[in-house]
Amino acid sequence: MTNQGSLLVVDDDRHICEAMADYLRSLGHRTETATTCREAMDRMKEMPFQVVICDVNLPDQDGFQLLEWSVLHCPDTAIILLTGYGTIESAVEAIRLGAFDYLTKPVIDDELNFSIQRALGQRKIVEENKSLRKQLNEKFGISNIIGRDYKMSKMFDLVESVADTRTTVLILGENGTGKTITARAIHQLSSRRDKPFIEVACGALPDSLLESELFGHVKGSFTGATQDKPGKFLQANGGTLFLDEIGTASQSLQVKLLRVLQDREFEAVGGSVTHKVDVRLILATNEDLEARVRSGDFRQDLFYRINVISVTQPPLRERLGDIPLLVDHYLAEFNQQTGKHIRGLDDHALQALQRYSWPGNVRELVNVIERAVVLSKSDVLGVHDLPENFRREEVEAHYGYNRSLGSAGLKSALADPERQIIIDALEQHGWNRQETARVLGINRTTLYKKMKKYDISYEKQVQMY
Predict the structure, then answer these.
(1) Who has greater pLDDT, 80 or 417?
(2) 3-state secondary structure 35-62
(3) Is residue 348 a contact partner of residue 385, using CB atoms and an 8 Å limit?
(4) Residue 55's closest CA among 89, 14, 115, 5?
(5) Could you give the CA distance from residue 121 to residue 4 in angstroms, rounded to a whole number?
């Protein structure tokens, strides 16, 4: 199967130029001609040619000058140089300067066609790689992390600051908050984006297998090791290694990890050869590592090594304002998957989602939206499309308020929600009190009094996180 492309033939001999162009047109290529270097440059400015076939000897300038100009101004165009006096030295120089091929006249038709087909095939591969890279950026880039909450904005700023460095990053957050997506975004934003991103779920493997998985093993190092196996560190060389659930690592494994972080070298299980690697390490945990250090379950020296930059992934219950954004995003995704046309949620359903505590975080929200889209018979989702626990909470919200008051009274019961609303508004506006007061519809003095009443301050909120 042949590729057809847009070609430019450049030769000062008009008869040879037209004969070659006619032959290439007969193969289905859209072919233009030029007889001088200047004319060729003008044509290339007007039209993006995929391949240029150019004689080295031209009346105004030689083909090498056209090649150098093309490398600067039309880098995606493949240049095939033709000469009647080819030498090995000139061929090497042409390839060094960026020529795709260097052919000697008289050119055999099949030889020319084969060279053009290789050039078009390579261009196709390059374009496919660009397309795949674009898809990876869309799927795993930071734009794929949904959120406008103040905590998320701070996280985005930190991720963008540390992404293109070699610094080890520790991602903290509950299960389901999206730690893996954040790790991938850091990789995609870095200069290592074209290198491997290797993920290892440390908690999914027993300790003996995890060590072999990370560092590899040599044949005969243990029962069942029938051949040498490279580990994830070697597979990730030049790229990024993401270790999820690092808090589950055993003490012996922690020692080996510490050495890799310090010296960038290790030995495979049962091996004596030292491997050196260039790996950017990102780790994640849902545990309190400082508490594990105090209890002696996690090495203090390793904790200091991995806690260079810590990124905190906020739970969904602390950024309820992002729920409508997340709902819209995943509705569009599941509409596309199922072929449905769900327009959105009604107000009661959205309020039910925002009242829920989300122990499973964003992962749980994704499951709820997918279930609702699949089962819904309407183009607008209601509370009846949500799982049973949401419907139960909706009923309690409407009819159970009197039971929650107890003997405390209305004023006391309303205090906690008011305090939380003020905190959320302050965080959403970067603790700018004037802007927060404007959004809440109160004057700044009233906001100061309420902050004092409810003991709200930026320093205390930071200490909580």
Answers:
(1) 80
(2) CCHHHHHHHHHHCCCCEEEEECCCCCCC
(3) no
(4) 14
(5) 10
